[in-house]
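Figure-free illustration: sequence to structure, shown twice.
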Amino acid sequence: ALVFSLQQEREYTASASLIFRDSGPSARPLVSQDPEREAATNVRLLQGDLVERRVARALGGSIGGKVSVVAEGDSNVITVKATASDAERAARIANTYAEEYTQFRRETARRELREQQRETRGELAALDNIPSGTADELAIQRERFALRRRLAQLAVATPGAEAIRRVGLARPPSSAASPTPLRNTLLGALVGLILGLVLAGARDRLDRRIRDPQELESVFERPIIGRIPKSRALAKRRPGAKALPRAEAEAFHSLRANLRYFGADGRPRSVLVTSAEPKEGKTTIAWNLACAASSPD
């Protein structure tokens, strides 16, 4: 994990934040007033191809990084995160996205306002063309007054001026967001430890070798009648050599006594000493057992 992290290209992440508001009572809102729906709409617009093309054009033809848009919970704040191989580039991408989207929303609001003015003038002209003396003329006058008032409000409206505002300017990060060698190394060590424990447990369960004397009694259903310790004195002793040290000699005398006890007639006439592989001590056992049997009780 450490080697892999050190080989990766460094990437820097910068963030710019935008806050969205209703564009005012004089203009129809561009999105729903439901905070969740409004945030989702703004995220989709920020991630759309139109804004991406505007940003690419402002940056000289290509973005040169990765961009993600995140809505901050149920609030009207949206964060634009830009990732690039250069810290300055990452900050520039995030700020350009915020600026271009701000301009896009304001241009859209202005078009919406002009459309509302055109529709209101059309409705007012239609009412003005109604000849006087028409039935329900009082209601027509009231509607005409409401439309003129609406036109006056739209004339002084400032579409998009407060609908969107940047609340966080992206700055070049001082450290890379990725890779993270320390975190990756710790995660690699943790995963390696878990895998090691799993493999060790699997190996232990699949290992059929006998490693404990108690397992011999369980596997063969026979008692252990003697235990001969590992000893340099036994390893160096040859037939005809001097007597064994006290501890080793006692082990063979105990083995001889147990053989007599477990024998059918109390004193076996012959004993077979065998093993699974060569050089496991058969000769040493047989010779020293014979010496113990020939010694006086």
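We now fold a second protein in the same way, so the two outputs can be compared directly.
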Amino acid sequence: MTSPGKYRRLSRAATASGHFVILAIDHRLNVMEGLERTQGQPLTGDQFTAFKREVIEALMPAGASALLTDPQFGIAPGFAQGWLPAQAGLLAPLEETDYTIHPSQRTFRAIPGWSPAAIERSGADGVKLLLYYHPEARDAASQREAVERTIEACAAADIPLYLEPITFSPDPARTLSPAELTDVVVASASLFSAMGIDVLKTEFPVDVREQPDEAVWRAALRRLDDACTVPWALLSAGAPYATFVRQTALACEAGSSGVIAGRALWAEEVALSGAERSAFLQTNGRQRMAELAAICQASGRDFRARTTPPPPF
């Protein structure tokens, strides 16, 4: 049974019809490095904040129900400067991620001074935790323990946890086979939803480059939906928009409650600047957000179908 506080915060992050259409721009070092390559010189914190602000102000009004952004370059300056959207839900990441090392070495590390309680005090509506996970990895037990601690901390703060388990090969010398990738994504959905997370933010359960057959996609999505006992939403994972929009349509048909989408919406802007960037956001970016919102509205599952409402007072 969901507490009144969690239920209210989940509702604030969703549309009136109960679908998640969440703009994700909590990216930090990897996107900052891309922007530095574009402009040919180091980026200041203020410049990085300005990039995020431009994306947020352009795309949020095009159909987003909530925003996922980081505390340093998104939430703090957004509040201070008055440009965070007041009527939309707000999610914050809990973790720091080092992309210079292999995923097998990326253990959970919280942003210094940041916690579910701090996120709740900031006025946000949800905690996002990205976790690299494979059940046969050396640190699988410690990663599960990190999820357990975070579930407990979120319960104490009365704020929902959106868990994002990312599959990887425990052996740096090989990649996962297509079948293993699907199996691990499905197993992770089963494991973590049973542990008591509130929403699963999941990668697509198929390596679409190796398996382009949509019949395979549909079968994997059915397995994912059967395994997951909480609402789930699809992340874009850097997929090209043309691929992600099709993945979204099939995921919603299979039972997804929506999307938490980042680079599929705005990745091209990293390589643009000035008027070109603004034009792309106002045309392609807004069209993409509106299209995803329409798909979620038309065929997504209301998150309340898998969230037990609180009892009356």
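Summary for the second example: The two ends are 14 Å apart (CA to CA).
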